[in-house]
From TrEMBL:
Any Pfam family hit: Kunitz_BPTI
Name of the protein: BPTI/Kunitz inhibitor domain-containing protein
Alphabetized SMART domains for the sequence: KU
Residue runs in coiled coils: none
Entry GO MF terms: serine-type endopeptidase inhibitor activity
Keyword annotations: Disulfide bond, Protease inhibitor, Serine protease inhibitor
Residues of the BPTI/Kunitz inhibitor domain: 11-61, 68-118
Length: 133
């Protein structure tokens, strides 16, 4: 029953344009890159991974993505920007070259920003923080 009763996660579905021939501009979530992208929907069937606006796509799908778990994507452009990215296999941040467009969100300006965002912290080694109360 669980396989049939659980709602499927539309954000992880590969975009399906459907069999019809309309050309409707939509937004779809690319789970490999962890970003919302423009797409053309045929107008019928397909699946739930299509949104009328970028905002609705981002609100539904991007909060669920852990950018640190994404494989670094330098993007299709040819610029040369030194950035930092988190490598899950090595469990550390490392330098990379970003092409300047597209790519994904596993990209940081500084090593500190990458470490703060991605490195798993052993709770026992954290400094005590009493909080504001």
């Amino acid at each position: 029953c669980e396989g049939k009763c659980q709602q499927e996660d539309i954000c992880n579905l590969k975009f399906d344009t459907g069999p019809c021939k309309a050309a409707i501009n939509v937004w779809t979530f690319n789970s490999e890159k962890g970003v919302c992208e423009k797409a053309i929907y045929g107008g019928c069937l397909g699946n739930g991974n299509k949104f009328r606006s970028e905002e609705s796509c981002v609100n539904r799908c991007q909060p669920t993505v852990d950018k640190c778990s994404l494989r670094f994507d330098s993007g299709p452009c040819d610029a040369y920007f030194n950035v930092w990215t988190y490598n899950t296999e090595k469990d550390q941040c490392e330098e990379a070259v970003y092409g300047g467009c597209s790519g994904n969100s596993n990209r940081f300006k500084t090593l500190d920003e990458c470490n703060l965002s991605c490195q798993k912290k052993d709770v026992c080694s954290l400094r005590f923080d009493a909080g504001p109360c």
